[in-house]
Automatic annotation (TrEMBL):
Pfam families: KH_1 (PF00013), PNPase (PF03726), RNase_PH (PF01138), RNase_PH_C (PF03725), S1 (PF00575)
N-terminal signal peptide: none
Cofactors demanded by this protein: Mg(2+)
Keywords, sorted A to Z: Cytoplasm, Magnesium, Metal-binding, Nucleotidyltransferase, RNA-binding, Transferase
Sequence positions that bind Mg(2+): D488, D494
An MF annotation (GO) of this entry: RNA binding
Top-level taxonomic group: Bacteria
Compartments it resides in: Cytoplasm
The protein's name in its UniProt record: Polyribonucleotide nucleotidyltransferase
EC number: 2.7.7.8
Organism in which the protein naturally occurs: Porcincola intestinalis
Length: 703
């Protein structure tokens, strides 16, 4: 049996251990990670040769959740893990985003970073362990990589930061922050927050950055002992002579004229004309033609970056801190429960809100024992027509899942509790047109859609993105407010921030360089706050200032009452007989949770009132003197049984039916009669006893 070597460090009060050489020896790099009792196997593998016919680095990151890690057997017929969960996809993206820029830009070999979650300790989140494992496995491998990098998570409870919080602290705290760093700079930020002030967020980011430096020193020790020599790869960089020949055919001034337009389609048409000219000139130079697409891309990129950084000119003519033209409207889609459209330049999002009973919340089967369902759901779609392309729809990809989750995270802090608003809520953001920052536009559109649907959100939330172009030194840079697609493609950063007037609710930062200095981070956060305030005050509030007082007439009406949890069984009845009878009689839908919260929904308010009345009668301990109305359901020689609600009956003795003497119950009552009675308490057998003849005029409860 292979023993391997173990390396350990103390991290946030727990021991982080890494076994190298113990398992998965055929991978290029493998780190068997242990943090508390959480165990993750992280591997890095690369193909021997580059993939032909591509112009990008083919990196795949996987985060595999195994049910056995939490002592469960998967649900479903096959009892086997299916496709990756949303959490798996989002975790893989968080690992991918900081690591991808550290691989060589001209690297074309397939690389896979796989993280197998084998055991979960609720005190040590497996996502964090996988993030660190991927970095260590890649650093000690022979795969070209400019690491190490490290990641730290920060939570906050009662105003105090918690480094690498437990799962419960992470789920229930006011901050969910993940920060990745190199030895000098921050390279990735991902955050969800309950309106954290900007200064406090920056403090948390750099507290995580400091912890990352400890981890990087630990990784460097492992690499010094275990690291393999990096292999030599085939470079796909464009030769300098190809660039020189291209510039002779397309002078710098002509390229600037081609890209300097605020219309994406016009810019693409201009570049196509230039590309055709070069293709014709190089018809006999097949070796040059092989680099044409990449050379044109690089030339356009260098031109845009030079215009922005040196000349302070943006392709669409805007100022550095200027937002594109904005517009907002609501109620553009009829009959849905709520709709809104937000347009920023050539980016346009329409969000539709749907309300449903709480029984329609999304059930979640995963490794987090604290989260089994999701009441607020945000989904994002990005069809090919939004960018003028054509391709078949294959369902949501990782990018769409990530954008939907970002918008969901941004809005979750302002969603009312189920006690205040007993609905399941689904927002779907449809991308009508895209030219940068659609995820942030979907946050704005969703806020207005929720308000239009009558969802009493606590505050409005807006989102905006900042970009970056850097020069040769750390202090040679320029931050751009509201980047469009071209500035995102050719720039160094996409820094998305969402929040209310009072603080940040979500951050997602992607970069293409080896990190950001603190002044850049601080300026980007300040710029997004300024832009967010403008959008909230000048665009969204004039469109819809506050949530509508009532939900749409097309939405189900829901009322909620509280019953004694000990009475839940009475309402449900044996095998659901009682609750099903209430549903059958009223047509209302009824949901009951373990705490005794009862939600009753229907399009008919009378049906809701009737169902609630039945539930109240069933759960009421009748007292002497209480007046009710019920239905005769059984007649005996000694009296009649009156039903007041499904499963709730009482008896009227023959002597209590009429003021005069009667010989037979049938002389006065027949089955199905509606009668008014007064409660006399319980008889000797413990049954509820009622009287018809002693009823006085007054209010009564009826079924």
């Amino acid at each position: 049996m292979k023993k391997g070597r173990r390396y350990s460090m103390e991290l946030a009060g727990r021991t982080l251990s890494v076994d190298v050489g113990r398992v998965a020896a055929q991978a290029n790099g493998a780190a068997f990670m242990h943090y508390g009792d959480t165990t993750v196997l992280s591997t890095a593998t690369a193909s021997d040769a580059p993939r032909e016919g591509i112009d990008f680095f083919p990196l795949s990151v996987e985060f595999e959740e195994k049910a056995y890690a939490v002592g469960k057997i998967p649900g479903g017929f096959n009892k086997r893990e299916g496709k990756a969960s949303e959490n798996s996809v989002l975790t893989a993206r968080v690992i991918d985003r900081p690591m991808r820029p550290l691989f060589p830009k001209d690297f074309r070999n397939d690389v896979t970073l796989n993280n197998l979650v084998m055991s979960v300790d609720p005190e040590c989140r497996p996502e964090l362990v996988a993030m660190l494992g991927s970095s260590i496995a890649t650093c000690i491998s022979d795969i070209p990589f400019d690491g190490p990098c490290a990641m730290t998570q920060v939570g906050m409870i009662d105003g105090e930061f918690i480094i690498n919080p437990s799962q419960k602290q992470w789920d229930e705290g006011d901050l969910q922050l993940t920060v990745a760093s190199t030895s000098t700079k921050v390279i990735m930020i991902e955050a969800g927050a309950k309106e954290i002030p900007e200064a406090r967020m920056i403090e948390a980011i750099y507290k995580a950055h400091d912890v990352n430096q400890e981890i990087i020193r630990f990784i460097n020790e492992i690499v010094a002992a275990e690291g393999k020599q990096k292999f030599t790869y085939q470079s796909y960089a464009v030769p300098e002579e190809v660039f020189a020949a291209l510039k002779e055919l397309v002078p710098q001034e002509e390229m600037e004229q081609a890209v300097f337009t605020d219309e994406k389609q016009q810019r693409e048409a201009n570049i196509a004309v230039l590309t055709d000219r070069v293709k014709e000139a190089w018809a006999e130079k097949e070796d040059y033609l092989a680099y044409l697409a990449d050379a044109m891309y690089q030339y356009e990129k260098k031109t845009v970056r030079k215009m922005i950084l040196k000349d302070h000119k943006r392709p669409d003519g805007r100022k550095i801190d200027q937002i594109r033209p904005l517009s907002a409207e609501i109620d553009l889609i009829p009959r849905v429960h709520g709709s809104a459209m937000f347009t920023r330049g050539q980016t346009q999002i329409c969000t539709v809100t749907t309300l449903a009973p709480l029984s329609e919340v999304q059930k979640i089967e995963g490794l987090d024992p604290n989260i089994t369902e999701k009441r607020y759901i945000h989904q994002y779609n990005f069809p090919s027509y939004s960018v003028g392309e054509t391709k078949p729809s294959r369902g949501p990809g990782r990018r769409e899942i990530g954008h939907g989750a970002l918008a969901e995270r941004a809005l979750l802090p302002v969603i009312p509790s189920k006690e205040d608003f007993p609905y399941a809520i689904r927002c779907v953001s449809e991308t009508f047109e895209s030219n940068g920052s659609t995820s942030q536009a979907s946050i704005c559109a969703s806020t207005m859609s929720l308000m239009a649907a009558g969802v009493p959100i606590k505050k409005q939330v807006a989102g905006i993105s900042c970009g970056l172009v850097t020069g040769d030194t750390d202090d040679d840079y320029i931050v751009l407010t509201d980047i469009q697609g071209l500035e995102d493609f050719f720039g160094d950063m996409d820094f998305k921030v969402a929040g209310t007037h009072d603080g940040i609710t979500a951050i997602q930062m992607d970069i293409k360089i080896h990190g950001l200095t603190r002044p850049i981070v601080e300026e980007a956060i300040a710029r997004t706050k300024q832009a967010r305030e403008y959008i909230l005050n000048e665009i969204m509030t004039p469109c819809i200032a506050e949530p509508r007082p009532e939900v749409s007439k097309y939405a189900p009406k829901i009322e909620q009452i509280q019953i004694d949890p000990n009475k839940i069984g009475d309402v449900v009845g044996q095998r659901g007989k009682t609750i099903n009878e209430i549903i059958a009689r009223t047509g209302a839908k009824i949901d009951i949770d373990d705490d005794g919260n009862v939600s009753v929904s229907s399009d008919d308010k009378n049906a809701i009132a009737s169902a609630i009345n039945m539930i109240r009668i069933i759960t009421t301990d009748f007292e002497e003197g209480q007046i009710l109305q019920g239905t005769v359901v059984s007649i005996k020689d000694f009296g009649a049984f009156i039903e007041f609600a499904p499963g709730k009956e009482g008896m009227v003795h023959i002597s209590k039916i009429a003021k005069h003497r009667i010989d037979h119950v049938e002389d006065v009552l027949t089955l199905g009669d509606k009668v008014t009675v007064v409660c006399l308490g319980k008889d000797k057998m413990g049954r509820l006893s009622f009287s018809m003849k002693d009823v006085k005029q007054g209010p009564y409860q009826s079924a």
